[in-house]
Structure formats: C-alpha cells, structure tokens
Amino acid sequence: MGRAVTVATCALNQWALDFEGNLERISRSIDIAKSRGARYRLGPELEICGYGCSDHYYESDTLLHSFQVLAKLLESPATQDIICDVGMPVLHRNVRYNCRVIFLNKKILLIRPKISLANAGNYRELRWFTPWNKARHVEEYFLPRIIQEVTGQETVPFGDAVLATKDTCLGTEICEELWAPNSPHIEMGLDGVEIFTNSSGSHHVLRKAHTRVDLVNSATAKNGGIYILANQKGCDGDRLYYDGCAMISMNGETVAQGSQFSLDDVEVLVATLDLEDVRSYRAEISSRNLAASKVNPYPRVKVNFALSCSDDVAVPTCMPIQWRHHSPEEEISLGPACWLWDYLRRSKQAGFLLPLSGGIDSSATACIVYSMCHQVCLAVKNGNADVLADARRIVNDETYVPEDPREFCKRIFTTCYMASENSSQDTCNRAKLLAEQIGSYHINLNIDAAVKAIVGIFSMVTGRTPHFSVYGGSSRENLALQNVQARIRMVLAYLFAQLTLWTRGMPGGLLVLGSANVDESLRGYLTKYDCSSADINPIGGISKTDLKNFIQYCIENFQLTALRSIMSAPPTAELEPLVDGQVAQTDEEDMGMTYAELSIYGKLRKIAKAGPYSMFCKLINMWKEICTPREVASKVKHFFRMYSINRHKMTTLTPSYHAENYSPDDNRFDLRPFLYNTTWSWQFRCIDKQVNAL
C-alpha cells in the first residue's frame, strides 16, 4: 500500500566547534534511526558545528570544517538508504545562511536556508546570518570541490522548496519559523505537504516547554499532517541549556515524546505513522481545502525514494500519548544539574567548590550539585558508558563506578563555611548538617584574621579606623567593612578551589560556584567581586520564590531534613555585628523591598518593557488593595534608584544558567547602560504629577 512511514528525530548534546564529537554524535543517531527502521532522520539546528558558535560563524574555518564533516557523512555507509537532514552554515553568493542540508545515498537533494531568524533575547542570528527572503524560489548552489568529489554533483538546489518522495511530500521549518506568525507550515500544508520537519536550537526557560509542545500540536491541529521536531540538548559552551524535548506529532496530538533533561548525549525518537490518517483528517476540513485550491505551489524536488514499504498493511503505527510536563521545582532540580555536568566534564576540572553560608541560595546551589550526582549515578546504572567514562576521568580512577550519590558527592564537591565574628552559630550548624546529608567534603574556616589584617593596612596608611554603624560609624564605613568580608571570601574560595584537592593528595582543581539569585542581581544586592564572583552560577537566573519552592521539593524528594531550618530562617548576609549573639541584619530590610516585590519589578521592567512611569501606572492597579498611589510611587522610585546605581555590577556578573525571562544578564540578554542618571528626574516628575492628580 505504501502508507505507513517510519521517521526519526533526535536530541543531540552538541558542542560549539567540537567537529569531531559532533560528527560522532550525528553518526550515532543515524545508526540508531536506521536500526529501528527509520527512512528519514532529522537532527538539531546547526548540529554539525554546534549552535553556539557566535562570532566564529564569521570565520571561513567554521564553513570549511562543516563541509569536511558533511563529506564524512556523505561517504559513510551509515547514511545510505535513509534521507538525512543535517544543519550547518552555508555561504551562497558571499552571503551566510543558516541551512538544512538534506541528502540521500551520497547525493544532496536540497539546501534549505532559514527564512525567519531568531533575534530576540539570547538570540543574535541576524548578526551572523541573512534570512532567505525569496519565497518559493530556488537557485543553483555550486558545491565546494570536497563535496563534488563525493557526490559527483556540481550544483544542487538552494532555496525554499519541498521534497516529493514516491509516497509523500516533506517540508522544512527551522526553529524560529515555528514561532513566527506566518509559519511556513501553513502554506506548505495547504500545498499538500504532509510531513513538516523542524530543527531547533531552543533553550530551557522555566515553564516554557508546554509552549513549544502546544505550538507543534497546533501546527497540525488546524491543517492536518505529521510534525517532527528535533532540538539540541545540553550546554554547548555558554549560559544556555538546550532542553531536548524532541517530539513527533500528528493531527494535533503527540505520538512520541523525548526527555527534557537527560545526560544521554544522543537520544533518538522513531515513530511509524499512517499517511492515510493525515489525508482523511484533511478531507473533512472544508475551509482548509478551499484555501488549498488558491495556494501558490512550492518548487518540488523529486526524490526517487519512499519512506514506506510497498507491503505495510500489517505494520503497527504509533498512537497518541499524553505529554508529561515537569513541575518548575523538577526543572530547577534537573536543568541546572545537567548544565553543571556538561560544564564540569567539558572543562576537564575535578569538581566544584561552593562557599556554603547556611542560607537558602547557597543551599539551593548545593542541592543542585547533589541532584547532578543523582543523575550521574542513575545514568551509569542505566548503562550510559559516556557518563561512566567521564565520571572516571573526573575522579581520576579508571575502575570507579558511581553508585551512591553521597559518595560521588564526597569525591567531586567541596563546601566551605567561612565564618566571621558576625556569623551566627545557627548558620554554621545548618551548613554543616546539610553538607553531611548530601555527602560533600566540608571545610570550616574563620576569616577574621584576614579581615583584621586588611583593615589594619588601611588604618596604618591613613591613620583612620572605620567602624560599623552600630559602633558609631557612618553608612560608608559600615558598607566598606561588609564589603571587605565578602571580598576576602571570594579570594579564599579561589585559593581553596585550587589547592584543596592537592592537600588531599588528589590531582586537579575545582570550579568555584556562585549563588546569587536573579532578584539580588537585578537589585544589585551583592558585593562586586565577592562570593557571587565565581566560575559559574547555577541559580543566577532563578528567583528567590522559585528557590524556596525548590528547597521544599528537596526536603520531600531527597529527604534533606537540614533544609527545614534553612527554609524557616530569615535571609541574611551576616556581615554586620550580632546583637546579643543573634542576627540583626536581614536581606529584605537592607534592600528596602521584599523578594516578592523584587520579582514583580523584574518582570515588569524586562518582560513588560516598563520604565519607571509605566511601572507605576501598572502597579497602582495591581496593588490598589494594599498601597496608596503615593506608596507605590515611593516603591517604584526606590527600585529604579537602586537598580540604576548598581547596574554596573552586571558587567562582571558570573556566567549564570539562564532560566528566567527577566534575567538582568548584561552579556547578551539584557542590554542596558551601566552608567545611569540615577535621579531619573524627568521620569519621577511624571510619576509625581500623576500621584497629585490621583
């Protein structure tokens, strides 16, 4: 009959510019797809070079090495008798395009350039690529000699076309095109395309996965068809974690779901689907059929190949499934943990060091490392040879098998409580108990001698001795004395990260982990070059509210009872003197705002694009039951004053896992000045005028 088609998609943990590793993972995915009967294999966006090459896309080397990898794939016996769809940059008439290269049996069928480029938030594709603006237009592409020698082709079609096989028609979308309001699948579907493919480089954001799933399912709900989505996974060299979720959908329902978080470098989904289900679904949608009769046809590249077998009546086909989404707490437990594992193994370091204060933020970071250890042990138990090899190299033991998360944690994770005369015994005990429960190698030390030495140098040079405000000092003295403590902790963290394993007779160094949350960064409630200055920060894109919920999740799922007292304690920096042995300083009092308020300010500032006046206008309605307009005005002014005074700190912010759309990350996500007129005179005058009117 020729109606049951078997197709494969995948999620690959590619790494920018790792051409050798990327080739191996692509080849492995093709092998798996073929072994499971697939006749078409789809991979992630720009999988040959890795998505995150950034300005390396300008280099001719990136183009050259991509074609060299393509030549290897074309030559490989594994790519015979299966249509392979791979992603790479291509230079056509001196213009760089983000392309899909689709080939079969050593012949390139089509090079399809991306039409809609991602250029918002973390994405900068227009910096490196040009969109293909010639709809339904195909040109000749002259192949480089290294490809001509393999394929025997001089030119191949390049442009906006679809593939017509013996039994069906396939059309390509690339990542952003699914999210665009005029997605190509709409017109392609009307023109008779039955299978849509999408190669993505889509990163994780908390609570985002359902949006992607809904878009895929809705693409075929109105128009019918089969939709196949591939995505990158893992950390490919920067702040983003690509979260897989490869999937296959038909007629608005999911039929195959890939994992969102996994330590598997290669994950392949295969589904067998009945083309007649697409045709019968479309047959009764009269509005679709009327629109189809008027559509401009796409150029078709004829392919002498079928995705089905001639005798397939008895071939079982896949049935719809219910998509299972992770809770935000599970996402925090798994996403940053997988990101940390990729960073650790690819940086070739021997573990992590975390200054553990006994507060929520550093405890949440410790729990994420513990979750990572859980994931490693589970992957090894499930037979993942790559994870086992990486774990053995990290601990420098060729016979080691990680079976117990606490034991593995002891080998690769060092926690350090850095006490001062301003630290309470409570936080010391909390840090120690949590370290015992997760199994980390824990160090207690006191920084007072170093603080006194540095302040002593200042006093010797200037003849003046600064004092805390409780002892009569000014606010400037008070802040300077707090900052000295914080910065000494950063220096000690790096010293211990470099030498702790040496003292234990073990090779290698440790990566220093930071633990400033997204709200503190936004407000600037941190000392520049203190313990927030680390190698990487797994919670830097997560709000305090979400971290509290995550801590509760860890209490219930990891049985970390030490977290109960951490949850109940008020957040504090413990940088000012104790009063009767008790902490007098709290974060929210220091900041002049609550963490809940700060989260709202952050979302309005970034996601709602609100300046001071617009934020005031929105909040007088949101908070009308709890605040007068004058109180709202005071809060908004205080936030913007503090935000602008401290914005310079974002220029040195530790690279953080991107998890929130209101992140203040200055690297590329949230581009703002770092020298403001902090009086905001015009803006605040507009607010005052409105307050008086009200």
TrEMBL record:
Query: Example GO biological process term?
Result: 'de novo' NAD+ biosynthetic process from L-tryptophan
Q: Where is the CN hydrolase domain?
A: 5-275
UniProt keywords, alphabetically: ATP-binding, Ligase, NAD, Nucleotide-binding
Q: Which GO terms describe its cellular component?
A: cytosol
Which pathway or pathways does this protein act in? Cofactor biosynthesis; NAD(+) biosynthesis; NAD(+) from deamido-NAD(+) (L-Gln route): step 1/1
Q: Which PROSITE patterns match?
A: CN_HYDROLASE
Q: List the EC numbers from the record.
A: 6.3.5.1
Q: What's the name of the protein?
A: Glutamine-dependent NAD(+) synthetase
* Organism field: Grus americana
Q: Which gene encodes it?
A: Nadsyn1
